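Reagents: none. Just compute today. F-box domain-containing protein.
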Amino acid sequence: MEKLEQHVSENLSITSRIETQSPKPVREYNLDPIPVDILIDIFSRLPRKSIDRFRCVSKSWRYLLRRPDFRDAFLTNSSTRPRLFFTLIYNGQLFCYSSPQPQNPDDNSTLVATFYDKSSARWFPTDNRTLVCGLALLQGKYKRKDRVLVFCNPITGKFITLPKVPLNRKSLPDTEASDASIARIYLGYDPISKKLKVLCMTSSLCGRLNTHQVLTLESGHRLWRRIDFAFSFTPDDRMRDEICINGVLYFGAKMGGQSSVIVCFDIRSEKFGFINLDEDMLGENYESGYLTLFNYKGKLGIREETNEDTELVLWVLEDAASHEWSKQTYEMPSLIREKTFVGMTGTGEIVWSSFRNNYLNRFCVYFYNLEKNTLTRVDIRGFEDFKYRRAYIDTFLDYVENIKLM
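Predicted 3D structure written out:
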């Protein structure tokens, strides 16, 4: 890779070369310029750190490496080499790390997490825990009176401050402005239109949901727009981790304040729908258990968590129109009991991590192959500055590096 970078930096920008060997006569060599599409293809295959360096070579390279078609090509290639992403909260600050995501992890192997830009330390994760296209939705510190939302690229540290969510009588005609608040914020992406959107749910102090508002991040004028849904629903705290799959955002809610459902929001059409849960999900344990949403090989998956830690129970949505679910049950490996469930990799391995609220003496990620019934533990290094300190860590799978500079 280093030889490739050297070859690129020495040759790609050259259209002519003059070679002088005094006292011999001057000889000039004219080279045909390399087509832009070939340059984009070559650069998009390089590591992100190399792109950062090459932007400083010349104005023409900086322009090329900021073109939208190059950013799209880099993001596409980046998705073929997914990474693990970690957010660490300590002493009121947010720190972001990333490491390679092993495709065939070896037991007791070690990965080193790279620290990203410090500028994200001023912000906190929102209730939303989804990373979309390598970008995150963050908010101002909790002690601030006004909730400030920002859209951030953890790699570059660059961010966009979102307009304040309207909570006045005009946008919430049925509620006094002083009673209104933000209930939930969600982030979604439509791969067809290539648009990122933020969905905001607002409610009154009495708990009644009043409005849903959406904001398109890729548009020139970022304004909140109110959208309507025929049914009333509120967030369901028993269902964790919303997920966006193939342009549809899924999250848990209570319909009419009673029955639990999965709300699905189509990012492109901005239409709501809902999916009923299987009646056997949690059953009698629903009030004491949790349902965690995750991406199961391109389908909506749910991990059922109860007081019984000897089984791994997974539900997969087979048909949204008919509300059809399939159930899979596995024996829970003893090593990962009382660990934090993370999700499933693109290659189909279930992943756990060390407990989120953890004294950082050691942090591990566990990969469980369902077909082979094998468990692999991988140590994560790079958090040594927080050793023996209590920090809150979240782990994300299939993270793709995005060089969008905002």
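The longest helix spans residues 68-78.
Action item: order primers for follow-up constructs.
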